[in-house]
Amino acid sequence: MSSRGIKAPLELIVPRLVSAIMSGYDLSETEALTRLYQSELYSRLEQEGTKLWHLSVPTLYSLWDEEQRTGEITYPEEA
After folding, report:
1. What is the pLDDT at residue 4?
2. I want to staple 55 with a disulfide (CB 3.0 to 4.6 A). Which of 19, 31, 59, 65 is the partner?
C-alpha cells in the first residue's frame, strides 16, 4: 500500500479514536491528539506493515489505554 493508502484509513480512524480518548480521559481535543500522536500505538498504526489500521476503533482505544496505564501494549493475535 502506498503512503497515501495508509493515510486514508488513518483519516477515518484518528477522529473517532481521539473522540474516545477525550471521553475516556476527560481531555480536550488538543490534549487527546497530542497524547495519541506521542504514543507507541500511533507510531505502529502509521506503519502499513503492522496492519493495526484494520482493527476497530474500540480495540485501538483499548490498546492505547493499556499503553497509557502500563507503558506496554499487548497486541491481539490478528494484528
Report:
1. 56
2. 59
